[in-house]
Amino acid sequence: MNSSLLSKNIQEFIAKNIGESITKLALQKNPFPDVEWILILNQIEAKTKAKDKLPTWFSTEDIIYPSKISVEQTSSEKTAAYKASLISGESLIDLTGGFGVDDYYFSKRFKNIAHCEINENLSAIVKHNFEKLQIKNCSFFADDSTNVLTASNQKWDWIYIDPSRRNDAKGKVFMMKDCLPNVPELLDFYFEKSNAILIKTAPLLDLSAGLSELKFVKNIHIIALENEVKELLFEIHNHYSGDITIKTANILKDKIETFEFILGNESYFPSYELPQKYLYEPNSAIMKSGGFDEVSSFFKINKLHKHSHLYTSDQLINFSGRSFEIEKVISYNKNDMKTELLNQQANITTRNFPDTVENIRKKWKIKNGGNLYCFFTTDKNDNKIVLICRKIT
Q1: Where would I find the THUMP-like domain in this sequence (predicted)?
Q2: Which residue, 56, 315, 317, 338, shows the most beta carbons closer than 10 Å to its own?
């Protein structure tokens, strides 16, 4: 950690240049010749990234940032706060501490936490930042987490792990065994140190692939931020053998949309109907969960088709996703398309439909945007239809 970055003049310069083009700044002469120009530029770039993602860090004085990539890869404060709300206890050890955003929020839910980070410089940065953030219940270990656990006799209430993908795994189907640490391989060792483990994975991991590599899974949490899936969390408890619950959360500016169901429960029976007055499109966390029959059963709304994943009802409900009022339903044929949508402006979505959005726009000369929302889909009778809608929420 380069503490010279904390000089008052450099910190003022960093603050003054938030949002400025790093490419342009790089061409200027370094006004602080005693400190490498690239280090100062990195602080400006990383702090700019942190403005919306990490407002607590951004607004705290004398914070030091690691590389821009570390800031990009870390949890946002909103997802970290939600994640911390899921668990609590006396002690937690984070085996892959990184920039420490998750641990900042875990520190508010646990009496003691430990931050393990194999990168000594990053570990020192986080330790410094936690002092500035006034977090006093965190211990820091600049070492491989396996070494830290091996050297300690402590039993932890929770282990938290955010494995990183190995470079040589690029291009392969994403599996947990392709990450560091290799959680499936180390799971029995981890259970010697804790009976409860929370594993964060990238959103592209297939749920069934994760389940095939792990054991004792109790809950799978799917977290989206503003309708973009950001994290999957596998919550495992030693020797657990009951139902697996899928819990989804879509964190919005003014609320959190939640939905949950029991995986593989055969008591969920969807109902099917032709388009009614309202149309519903599940949020991205629900889409990732695959619980499409469960949505129909839980919200008491009808599916348009087994594979369309769009829902309809005559009464408007409070739904976890987007809601629309259907203005018109047309068949997908030449005459209806010419009459209703040729040369129009509309937002287009396809669900269980043989053509792409791009081709549809090109074929019918439909411009993007506007207040009209058109869903090209298939109804319960296998007819190709277009739902012309106005957005409600």
Answers
A1: 321-391
A2: 56
Q: Which residue's entry shows tokens 């061409």?
A: 27
Residues 282, 196, single domain; the answer is no
User: Based on the domain organization, do 137 and 219 belong to the same domain?
Assistant: yes
Instruction: Write out the two tokens for 90.
Output: 């006396």
The count of other CB atoms within 10 Å of the CB of residue 383 is 12
- 278 with 135, same domain: the answer is no
- Last residue of a domain, which of 13, 34, 61? 61
239 and 280 share one domain: no
Which candidate, 172, 169, 206, 391, places its Cα nearest to that of 280? 391
How many separate domains does the chain show? 3
pLDDT string in tens for the chain (393-residue length): 678 899 999 999 999 999 999 999 999 899 998 999 999 999 999 999 999 999 999 999 999 999 877 888 888 999 999 999 999 999 999 999 999 999 999 999 999 999 999 999 999 999 999 999 999 999 999 999 999 999 999 999 999 999 987 665 555 557 888 889 999 999 999 999 999 999 999 898 899 999 999 999 999 999 999 999 999 999 999 999 999 999 999 999 999 999 999 998 878 889 999 999 999 999 999 999 999 999 999 999 999 999 999 999 999 999 999 999 999 999 999 999 999 999 999 999 999 999 999 999 999 999 999 999 999 999 999 999 999 999 998
